[in-house]
């Protein structure tokens, strides 16, 4: 399910609107994931505070969202671009790749809430494919 | 027996009380057919599903979206016995319609996103958790009669 030219155009277009709210969207997506899918909290035992509004969660939401923002400029070379991060996730973080889908879902929910008129079914399709490609690239080195 | 908190009960009733079933039914089903095109396999007799605009304008899609939302309404009105309420529907989907249960999850995700788009900031994390728990129970009840 690779990205067509149309998908890339859709992602680029909607990301122009996402970028100004990127910090809020990233924070919302991550803290929503921790609330709605509590099993994901198991990966954050080292965080003192996992409650909504927690500064650690917000900062980590920024880290993740900034990288996803960068990936918009690397849709043609996602796998090489994310090679280092894939090593990190595979050898050190060892996050079960099923969780990438869970975070992606929550990111889609937040984008829908923030940009209801722009997040049409076609754009939703393209963004979903984009996030799944990132997930695949991240899982590349797992085994 | 599924345990519902007062917050969860009120949240579900409140959300569904405000939804236009016709509009949301069409929006959710249309989104599912566009975002997960393989789901179109169950709608061979629906005619024109060639692109998003065609799907959105298709009267059979609209009619079916309405059927689905009214089906969900039964669960909203019987939250303490969703399993029993859906026993026949489960047999229908497994024996007659032969729908891969994974599709229920895909439609549930699309419905969540449609509701989020309509509720905006009111669709808080806690509200989302209650809504997704409700849909998970619905999906599980629909899966019960598969063997």
Automatic annotation (TrEMBL), chain A:
InterPro entries (UniProt xref): Globin, Globin-like_sf, Globin/Proto, Hemoglobin_a-typ, Hemoglobin_oxygen_transport
The Globin domain, residue ranges: 2-143
UniProt KW keywords: Heme, Iron, Metal-binding, Oxygen transport, Transport
A GO term for molecular function: metal ion binding
Gene3D superfamilies: Globins
One Pfam family named in its UniProt record: Globin
Signal peptide positions on this chain: none
Alphabetized SUPFAM superfamilies for the sequence: Globin-like
Family, per entry: Belongs to the globin family.
Protein's recorded name: Globin domain-containing protein
Upper taxonomic lineage: Eukaryota, Metazoa, Chordata, Craniata, Vertebrata
UniProtKB/TrEMBL annotation, chain B:
Transmembrane segments: none
Keywords: Heme, Iron, Metal-binding, Oxygen transport, Transport
InterPro entries in alphabetical order: Globin, Globin-like_sf, Globin/Proto, Hemoglobin_b, Hemoglobin_oxygen_transport
SUPFAM superfamilies: Globin-like (SSF46458)
Domain (Globin) ranges: 3-147
Annotated GO MF terms: metal ion binding; oxygen carrier activity
Domain of life: Eukaryota
Pfam name, any one: Globin
The family this protein is said to belong to: Belongs to the globin family.
UniProt-recorded name of the protein: Globin domain-containing protein
Organism annotation: Umbra pygmaea (Eastern mudminnow)
């Amino acid at each position: 399910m690779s990205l067509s030219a149309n998908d890339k155009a859709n992602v680029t277009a909607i990301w122009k609107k996402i970028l100004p709210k990127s910090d809020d969207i990233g924070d919302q997506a991550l803290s929503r994931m921790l609330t709605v899918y509590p099993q994901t909290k198991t990966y954050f035992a080292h965080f003192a505070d996992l409650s909504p509004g927690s500064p650690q969660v917000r900062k980590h939401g920024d880290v993740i969202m900034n990288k996803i923002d960068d990936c918009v400029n690397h849709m043609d070379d996602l796998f090489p671009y994310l090679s280092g991060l894939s090593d990190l996730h595979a050898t050190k973080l060892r996050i079960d790749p099923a969780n990438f889908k869970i975070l992606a879902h929550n990111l889609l929910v937040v984008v829908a809430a923030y940009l209801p008129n722009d997040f049409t079914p076609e754009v939703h399709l393209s963004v979903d494919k984009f996030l799944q490609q990132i997930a695949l690239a991240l899982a590349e080195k797992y085994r | 027996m599924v345990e519902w908190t007062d917050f969860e009960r009120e949240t579900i009733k409140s959300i569904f009380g405000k939804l236009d079933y016709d509009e949301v039914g069409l929006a959710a089903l249309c989104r599912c057919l566009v975002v997960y095109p393989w789901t179109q396999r169950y709608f061979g007799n629906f005619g024109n599903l060639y692109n998003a605009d065609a799907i959105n304008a298709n009267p059979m899609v609209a009619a079916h979206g309405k059927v689905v939302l009214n089906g969900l309404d039964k669960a909203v009105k019987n939250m303490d016995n969703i399993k029993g309420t859906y026993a026949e529907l489960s047999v229908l989907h497994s024996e007659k319609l032969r729908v891969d249960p994974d599709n229920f999850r895909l439609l549930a995700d699309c419905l969540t996103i449609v509701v989020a788009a309509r509720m905006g900031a009111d669709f808080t994390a806690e509200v989302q958790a209650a809504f997704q728990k409700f849909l998970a129970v619905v999906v599980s009840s629909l899966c019960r009669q598969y063997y």
